[in-house]
Amino acid sequence: MPLPPHHPPPTQSVARTSLPGNPLAPSAARRFVRAALADWTGLALPAAATITDRVADDAVLVVGELVTNAVVHAGTTVELLCRLEDPAGGLPAALVLEVSDHHPTRTVRHEHQHHQDDEDGLDEYGRGLQLVAALAECWGITYRPGLKTVWARLPLDGWDTCPVPGAEPAIQRGLRAAEILAPAPRRVVRDDHEWAGRGALSFLAEASDLLAGQLDEDLVAALAGQLLVPRLADWCAFWLEGDGTEGGGPRLARVWHADESALEALRTALEKEPPHMPEPARTGPVPIPWPPSPSPSSSGPQGSAAGGTALAYRLVVGGHGLGTLMLGRRGRARIPDAVTALVEDFARRVALAIGAARRYTRQVTISRILQRGLLPSQLAQIPGVDSRVVYEPSDDGLAGGDFYDVFQAGPAARRWCFMLGDVQGSGPEAAVVTGLARPWLRLLAREDHQVGQVLDRLNRLLLDDATEAAEAAASMVAAAGDLPGGPQPPSQPQARFLSLLYGELVPLAPEDGGGARCTLACAGHPLPLLLRPDGSVTPAAAPQVLLGVVDDVGYESHTFHLAPGDTLLCVTDGVTERRSRTGRMFDDGDGLAEALAGCAGLPAREVADRIRQAVHTYGETPVRDDLALLVLQAR
User: Fold this and answer.
1) How many angstroms separate the CA atoms of 259 and 328, rounded?
2) In angstroms, rounded to a whole number, what is the distance separating the alpha carbons of residues 555 and 274?
3) Cα–Cα distance measured from residue 218 to residue 357, given in angstroms and rounded to the nearest whole number
4) Which residues contact 121 (CB under 8 A, 6 or more apart)?
5) Which of 113, 305, 457, 462 is the most exposed place for a label (fewest CB within 10 A)?
């Protein structure tokens, strides 16, 4: 990570962590820094002897500001590094804090870039870097591919008299930081007229950019609160209504206040008296009496002593209310029209983001339920054979097209069947075929059909089903011809192609050689590979045509002895077609066989884990296809 240019290589102690890009990250970062400083002090490290309470407080304040900046302006995972440096090269001991996010296209905002004529010198974007500059000896920003790092160096020893050029005595830095943090004179000065022009457009554009793609409704509310406070309001709160699957009324999802010390009292007041919104739902501002229970002697976050005003907005999408946004200002009889109109536009964007997050959550939930129904709840244990499955759908929000199963052909049968298949496409279309193929295969296997016959019948079933779908589509076109405007052909029926590796295992007694007799057939699927104990690898089947493509195909099977110590590897094309940056596939040049040969002597579990790891590390980008592999190893 980058350091000040004059910095020599000192002796270091390093602590690092990764934090989620959500509103809980700053508090977690502060706790982490305090814990790291306590650990170093407990270990009696030389530089740790100079860690004072003031240094710890400064470090916690700086890291809180840097992590908050990363969460608000990047929204990605945040990497935090703390480094304790011994004195070196005439420089005192120091604590270096580095905060990195994965959105380097967003530049860190400097205070002098906005509204230099504000009477208190602070702009709408806050005081984070101004505070960092006041407390640190030096700080900076470094951009790397896919990473932006903001670092700050806090001296630990001799800083009051340190001869470093440009050094600032600690008392002056402390006063300057206190001035920035002082709550009484340092109020955010808002230019409400600005929100009638370019300022409003910039704010809405930034809000849309930050909220777009957020897939959790609580995170949407948290980010929206940070955008509103303190730019447009002194405090705000979000109530979110249920999506219809849960009982109960709206829940108070997020409360935000410019003064953190007033947060809990505000939350208590809001939980006691939530806003009452008129029906039917509308998006315009609704004045809310504030404080809710005036008292001449009351003060604090409700604003009773100073007075104030509050507005509430319904969060509505498509005529359905999703929740309520409430915001308030202290010491004002009313909020200007330019601001209320801007917040109304902002509330629409928040509602759209919450609606999108709920749709995604609902889709993921349905997909997971569907996936659980499409895949076996557990795999059968085969006598004398160890098995291991790896299954990773490419998209958690969609049911994958890959499927697998290991089952006994019947309660009294001494045959165990296994399958690994891949349906063309993904999502609902693939799920339909998967939902048909796996039960059909189980049924055909238990009717005592041979391996080749099972594939013949499954092929016929897929073709018949596709024919029925095409006939239904043709009927819909003909029926539409009688409607005004002529025929409106429906979407083209999805071709139901399926690649499949299907086989049977019959365990053998020791006097018959042990292991198992394996019979399998491969229909348009990556060929299974057989690993012998000596490290040799050979294909265990011959290629044949996909299922659901051609009628009257006679699928043939191959039988061999899976001897003790032999390993059979079955994979889908998510393994073989994994691509590197150059476009080369993982199985080009027998890459899969080479990787499997390196697994000689390993148990089934370790073979599966090693192949999986090899696939993931082969390319620089995440795996974009469903990944499934099955390992069968005779004992």
Assistant:
1) 13
2) 69
3) 9
4) 111
5) 113
Contacts 24+ apart (CB under 8 A), 137-146: 137/94, 137/164, 137/167, 138/4, 138/166, 140/2, 140/4, 141/108, 142/1, 142/2, 143/104, 144/104, 145/104, 146/102, 146/104
| Three-class secondary structure of residue 518 per DSSP | strand
What's residue 68's pLDDT?
85
Measured CA to CA, the distance from residue 399 to residue 406 in angstroms comes to 20
Closest among 373, 434, 381 to 406, alpha carbons compared: 381
112, HSE (Cβ side, Cα atoms, 13 Å): 1
- pLDDT tens digit sequence for 35-50: 888 888 888 777 787 8
Residue 51 backbone dihedrals phi, psi, to 5 degrees: -80, 110
Specify the long-range contacts of residues 607-614, CB closer than 8 Å, at least 24 apart: 607/388, 607/531, 607/567, 607/569, 607/631, 607/633, 608/388, 608/389, 608/390, 609/390, 611/390, 611/569, 611/571, 611/575, 612/390, 612/392, 614/586
CA distance 104 to 146: 6
Query: In 375-392, which ranges are continuous DSSP H helix?
Result: none
Sheet containing 627-634, strands listed edge to edge, beginning at the edge strand earlier in sequence: 385-392, 627-634, 567-571, 529-531, 537-539
Torsion sign over Cα 364, 369, 373, 378: positive
Give the distance from CA 604 to its chain's centroid.
Answer: 31
CA angle 434, 437, 440 (to 5 degrees): 145
Burial of 214: CB neighbours in 10 Å, binned 0-12, 13-18, 19+: buried
What lies within 8 Å, CB to CB, of 30 at 6+ separation is: 60, 63, 64
Listed residue (531, 481, 530, 467) closest to 503, CA to CA = 530
Alpha-helix residue ranges (DSSP H) falling in 184-231: 198-211, 217-228
Torsions phi, psi for 42 (to 5 deg):
-65, -30
Measure the CA dihedral 577/398/474/466, to 10°. Answer: 50
| 425 φ/ψ sector (left φ>0, alpha ψ -120 to 50, else beta) | left
How far apart are alpha carbons 204 and 198 in whole angstroms? Answer: 10
Q: How far apart are CA 519 and CA 506, in angstroms?
A: 9
User: Please, where are the H alpha helices in 512-600?
Assistant: 573-576, 591-597
Where would I find the H helices in 10-73? 25-42, 53-73
Q: Report pLDDT for 564.
A: 96
- What one-character DSSP code corresponds to residue 107? P
Q: pLDDT digit string (tens) for 293-345?
A: 654 444 444 443 346 899 999 999 888 889 999 999 987 778 888 889 999 99
Q: What is the dihedral of CA 530, 532, 538, 544, to 10 degrees?
A: -20
Q: Is 499 left (phi over 0), alpha (psi -120 to 50) or beta?
A: beta
Of 49-63, 174-188, 388-402, 445-459, where does mean pLDDT reach its minimum?
174-188
Contact between 46 and 82 (Cβ < 8 Å): no
The label of the residue with tokens 């073709």 reads: 463
Contact call for residues 541 and 562 (beta carbons, < 8 A): no
Residue for token pair 């994958």: 400
- Going edge to edge, which strands form the sheet with 235-240? 251-257, 235-240, 320-330, 308-317, 286-288
